[in-house]
Amino acid sequence: MAEREVLTYDDFGRAVREVAQKVVDSGFEPDIVLSIARGGLPFGGALGYALDLKNVSVVNVEFYTDVDERLDVPIMLPPTPAAVDLSGMKVLVVDDVADTGKTLKLVQEFLADHVAESKIACIYEKSRTIVNCDYVWKYTDQWIDFPWSSLPPITRAQTSGEIA
């Protein structure tokens, strides 16, 4: 098995604080944190707390179907945020990783004509991404094991002693 980047919950806590500090140091004052679900949800919520920003929202984008397997293009799933609700806002777009960058590009294009300004924060950025983040904790080209997605999902069959 190829070597992997492993993010622990302790590392996650450090990443949140360090990225929040980068946002503050840059002078960017977002009106809203827009997390890309699902991977960006833990990071977006934690950044909301670290930046003392209660306006946190989510956009659902499907791209990955399994480990290193993805759709041809990312697709936004309903419900999508209403562009009028974001009109004129400064938006901090948050995801766990800028891998290919296609998901981030889709969200950037969705926001482009509606928001005053948008910046991107990710825990990780890979060299092949087509969208470079404004705020990054760490750069890697390895597959990343996140603490919230490295174990298989819990199913009813597993909890009742049956094999899923």
From TrEMBL:
Annotated Phosphoribosyltransferase domain ranges read 11-148
Provide an example Pfam family for this protein.
Answer: Pribosyltran
Q: Does the keyword NADP apply?
A: no
InterPro entries assigned:
PRTase-like, PRTase_dom
Q: Does the keyword Cytoplasm apply?
A: no
Molecular function, one GO term: glycosyltransferase activity
Keyword field: Glycosyltransferase, Transferase
| Record protein name field | Phosphoribosyltransferase domain-containing protein
Organism of origin: Calidifontibacter indicus
